[in-house]
Amino acid sequence: MLLFPARGLFRPARGPLRATPRPHPRRGSSGSGRRWLLSTPIFYVNGPPHIGHLYSALLADALHRQRGLLGPGPGLLATGTDEHGLKIQQAAATAGTSPPELCAHVSSLFRDLFSQAGVSFTDFIRTTEPRHRRAVQHFWVALRDRGLLYKGVYEGWYCTPDECFLPEAQLTERPDAHGRSCKVSLESGHQVHWTKEENYMFKLSEFQEPLQKWLQGNHHVISPEPFYQLVLRWLEEDLPDLSVSRERSRLQWGIPVPDDSTQTIYVWVDALVNYLTVAGYPDTHQAWWPAAYHVVGKDILKFHAIYWPALLMAMGLDPPRQIYVHSHWTVHGQKMSKSLGNVVDPVACFNQYTVDGFRYFLLRQGVPERDCDYSEEKVIKLVNSELADALGGLLNRCTAPSINPSGTYPHFSESCFRKGSDQGASSRALAEDYELVALVAHLPRQVTDYFDHFQIYKALESIIACVRQTNGFFQRHAPWKLCRDNPAEKCWLDTILHVTLECLRIYGILLQPVIPATADRLLSRLAVKPEERAFTDVTFLPRYHGKLSPFEGRRLGPDTGVLFHKLETTRRRPMETKGP
Ligand code: MSP
What angle do CA 19, 24, 26 make, to 5 degrees? Predict the structure, then answer.
């Protein structure tokens, strides 16, 4: 089954992949459809990374890896840190350090985490880098020269943790630490402060209609669908102009407005332009734009689905091609917060569950449409049942020396497993076996469709359902009961092993974007060469279709170790806590 025309090779990444810029055809010329610039949000450096941040990055990484397996690209995956703004200025002051020191330290925590997590980023941008400052200032001057900025006195409630002004309708009253009533953001719960200052304003209101038109003609531009509908509803409301600078006297930690030393560029404009910086703006971005795909959390949707496209339109650039939105992780049903002390450290999770175990949990359990809950019990139960037992167990069963003494990919017998209706007396395959073959043959297309619709969890669900069915196939035919000395039984035994190994090969290929190291181990054990691992030529069970199989008779890989070790809980069971 040849799914896609181009053939590609994707190097399984064990750390950041370096960008090797290749010459790209210009927009509109052949090949431009395959290009992508995937991004994560850039992360604030006011605190260390947590599992919510990691989730954003893993979603983008899985999409990037999956696209790489569909063909040669070219594709970029950009991530990085958002280092300017009042929030960082205040965090540095609280920590008794300088903003540059705080930024360098926390930025390296993110970078190290993503490298450890196998996030295959091709660029890690810091907004304090000179290339970014140049891009932002260039962007500002172009906006100004197009007549889209004006100076005005801005009054309103500013929320520093969210770095935005909020209208009265989005506020509520809550008691502060001293019991005094104070105004907070309805959405984030963070306190707001009344601010009045002279700012530059961006004529956002002029873009209400163009934004509506862009979205109405482009149903899939924001996924999942409920977020698309949400943005459409926002656009039915009043869309006031946007304050895009702060007085320098209040905010020194930021990029100065060109030709006006009294003002600093608003941190969100600064941050959003990072997507152009990584594309080489203002020099080479046309090679990538508009092939931009942004992964964002629901809390920053308005910035990406309204402000950013409007800014791009204002510059005569196309809006992003797609915005993938995800919801949030809670912990035992509660929002993660420093004050509750329930922030989950991703590095500790890697130590406890392994990198692939935790990647699998987040991407399998995370449903972008709704908030998802983390608990140690859930991780252990899911990962043990699906990776250790179902997948690892299946590999173990069909490669164990007792059942597969030759250590090869055995022969498939067409007479034991006759094709479709052509069943003769010698055929041992049952109706459920044909169902399994049909299901696995369809799986690569199904998985690709789920990835295209930003439903990675569904892709994993369908893979694991097939893994379970394959275990059922193996169990049903109990090959361990067959006698190798009997030629007819040996033929069928080998066929059972061949079919099972073929299923595992497909699962290994399809799991690469999510659990790259485990998939690599699985495929190496099956002796699948690196150039045989692309999604482009996933030909399942060619022998069943009367074609040659390059795997038949091949020696299996030498690593006979356990594919995925069972995880253990850190909590002691009640029995263990009792004294002697
Ligand atoms: N700096 C801005 C983004 C600028 S992009 C041009 C920002 N940074 S952040 O560090 O606060 O958040 C980064 C990402 O982490 C966002 O997508 C946000 O939704 C995500 N998460 C933060 N907490 C989260 C959870 N508890 N769960 C899942 N993701 C969450 O916003």
Answer: 140
Count CB neighbours of 229 within 10 A: 12
Q: Is the CB of 42 under 6 A from ligand 1?
A: yes
* CATH superfamily of this structure's domain 376-545: Isoleucyl-tRNA Synthetase; Domain 1 (1.10.730.10)
Instruction: Evaluate whether 34-326 and 376-545 have a shared fold.
Output: no
**Which amino acid residue places its CA nearest to atom 25 of ligand 1?**
52
CA-closest candidate to residue 160, choices 185, 127, 128, 197: 185
**Is there an atom of ligand 1 within 6 Å of 256 CB?**
no
Give residue 194 CA to ligand 1 midpoint distance, Å.
Answer: 25
Q: Give the whole-angstrom CA distance, residue 376 versus residue 332.
A: 9
Residues 6+ apart with CB under 8 A from 485: none
Helix, strand, or coil (residue 485): coil
Whole-number Å distance, alpha carbon 43 to ligand 1 midpoint, is 6
Decide: 298 and 326 in contact? Cβ < 8 Å: yes
Phi, psi of 541 (to 5 degrees): 50, 60
At the top level of CATH, which class does the domain 34-326 belong to?
Answer: alpha beta
Q: Of ligand 1's atoms, which has the minimum distance to the CA of residue 335?
A: 26
d(Cα 519, Cα 551) in Å, to the nearest integer?
A: 17
| Segments making up each domain of the chain, as ranges | 34-326, 376-545
**Per-residue pLDDT for the chain (580 aa), expressed as one digit of tens each?**
222 222 222 222 333 333 322 333 333 333 345 789 999 999 999 999 999 999 999 999 999 999 999 987 789 999 999 999 999 999 999 999 999 999 999 999 999 999 999 999 999 999 999 999 999 999 999 999 999 999 999 888 999 888 888 888 889 998 887 888 899 998 888 899 998 889 999 999 999 999 999 999 899 999 999 999 999 999 999 999 999 999 999 899 999 999 999 999 999 999 999 999 999 999 999 999 989 999 999 999 999 999 999 999 999 999 999 999 999 999 999 999 877 889 999 999 999 999 999 999 999 999 999 999 999 999 999 999 999 999 999 999 999 999 999 999 999 999 999 987 566 666 899 999 999 999 999 999 999 999 999 999 999 999 999 999 999 999 999 999 999 999 999 999 999 999 999 999 999 999 999 999 999 999 999 999 999 999 887 899 999 999 999 999 999 999 999 999 999 887 654 454 333 3
Substitution site in 38, 45, 51, 56 for ligand 1 pocket (most atoms within 8 Å of beta carbon): 56
Strands 193-202 and 181-185 turn out to be unpaired
Q: Where does 70-133 show beta strands of DSSP type E? A: 75-82, 123-126
Short-list 336, 488, 326, 507, CA closest to 416: 488
Q: Which two tokens stand for residue 412?
A: 């498939």
Task: Say if CB 1 and CB 444 are below 8 A apart.
Answer: yes
What's the rounded Cα separation, in Å, for the pair 53 and 51?
A: 5
pTM as predicted: 0.91
- The whole-angstrom separation of Cα 251 and Cα 264 is 7
- Closest CA relative to residue 253, chosen from 99, 122, 124: 99
Q: How many alpha carbons fall within 13 Å on the CB side of residue 289?
A: 23
**Token match 């069971």: residue?**
573
Tell me, using a 6 A CB cutoff, whether residue 82 lines ligand 1: yes
